[in-house]
Amino acid sequence: MNVAPIPGVPVVDAVDLRREYGTGSACVVALADATCRIFSGQQIALMGPSGSGKSTLVHLLAGIDTPTSGTVTWPALANEPHLRPGPIGVVFQAPSLLPPLTVVENVALPLLLGGASGAEGTAAAREALALLELDTLADKLPEELSGGQAQRVAIARVLAGNPKLILADEPTGQLDHETATRVIDVLIAATDASGAALLINTHDPVIAARFSVHWSMHDGALITTSEQATTRC
Ligand code: ADP
Question: Which of 17, 38, 158, 169 could cross-link 70 (Cys pair, CB 3.0–4.6 Å)?
Answer without folding.
Answer: 17
